[in-house]
Amino acid sequence: MRTDGRKPDELRLLTFKRRYTRIAAGSTLVRMGRTTVLCTCSVEEGVPPFLVGTGKGWLTAEYSMLPGSTRPRKQRDRAGKVDGRSVEIQRLIGRSLRSVIHLDKLGERTLAIDCDVLEADGGTRTASINGAYVALADALAASAAVLPAGEPILYDSVAAISAGIVDGVAMLDLCYEEDRDAEVDLNLVMTGSGKLVEVQGTGEEATFTRKQLDHMLDLGRQGIEAITAKQKRALAKNWPLD
Predict the structure, then answer these.
(1) Which secondary-structure segment (H or E) carries 207?
(2) Could you tell me if residue 33 is left (phi over 0), alpha (psi between -120 and 50 degrees) or otherwise beta?
(3) Which run of H or E residues covers position 39?
(4) Interval 50-60 mean pLDDT
(5) pLDDT tens digits for 89-102?
(6) Confidence band (pLDDT; 50, 70, 90) for 80?
(7) Taking residues 104-112, what's their average pLDDT?
């Protein structure tokens, strides 16, 4: 029995609360179980120096855990210093979202994604990716008047989920206690069309077999299909795909 009573292949309760803030072009409060992340997307004129004059846009992401989101309290990043874990996660978020967007159709604009963890109970990086995609789709819809007309900018959706092996059992969407005790921990990012974006799998003082890896990947694919359906329902008329 899992700590919260779920079956091994069952997701935590997942919700998206769109337009959570008024200032950013797109914003979503995403909850996966107790994990809660505020995701915003701002549309800014201009691009990094390496893209100036190319006519191509960019997407960048920042991630942080607020001090009260975890116990013990996390020290706030200061003076431009970001801890290594946050850097790794925000790079993952950026890579994941850039995998489904036509950057050359943005013009010289930057999509700035911010993911701030309000409460952490495992899976903050996966929740961030799931919520950031909803915020991104809303931001593009809200900014349609200033973006180049023509083909859609988003050509697929993207979602992420964790899986792992706990006490010898493969499980989907690990909460904190399960993630802490897992012999194997895996994070999976996939597009809505079923293509792999990133697989992060690690044995925590343990090894795992190809059969166990395939099982976790199958669980992850199943979970991502369910998350994609929830993203689609949440976005409703702003769902950018056919």
Answers:
(1) none
(2) left
(3) strand 35-45
(4) 96
(5) 999 999 999 999 99
(6) low
(7) 96
H or E segment at 34?
A: none
This prediction has a pTM of 0.96
Token duo for residue 225: 């299909």
Amino acid symbol at 184: V
Q: Tokens in use for 111?
A: 């999509």
C-beta of residue 190 within 8 angstroms of C-beta of residue 220: yes
Spatial neighbors of 54 by CB under 8 A, at least 6 apart, are 47, 108
Percent of the chain residues topping a pLDDT of 70:
99
pLDDT the model gives residue 150: 75
Find, among 239, 162, 158, the residue nearest to 194 by Cα.
158
Beta bridge partners of 63: 115
Domains of the chain and any CATH numbers: 14-237 (3.30.230.70)
